[in-house]
Amino acid sequence: xxxxxxxxxxxxxxxxxxxxxxxxxxxxxxxxxxxxxxxxxxxxxxxxxxxxxxxxxxxxxxxxxxxxxxxxxxxxxxx
Length: 79
Prior knowledge:
By secondary structure, the protein is mainly beta. Helices cover about 10% and strands about 55% of the residues. The chain has 1 helix and 6 strands, in the order E-E-E-E-E-E-H. The chain has one helix spanning about 70-75; strands at about 1-10, 10-15, 25-30, 40-45, 50-55, 65-70. It has a 3-stranded antiparallel β-sheet with strand order 1-2-5, with no helix packed on it. It has a 3-stranded antiparallel β-sheet with strand order 4-3-6. A hairpin with a 6-residue loop joins strand 3 and strand 4.
């Protein structure tokens, strides 16, 4: 997995590239000080790219981004 970010105007876009041989499920959490944390959930197929976007409703002083990924198979087996 590889994660990169880009600022597009007032929004932040996180690009995730899956280099694994299996699909992965990712949670991307955006934390902007006083606002509630926003979580974007995406599944990325092998060799594909996924994006998560955050558009704050207030001025951003500092934005923290957390990315957590795991094999998508685990999620299916637990159901």
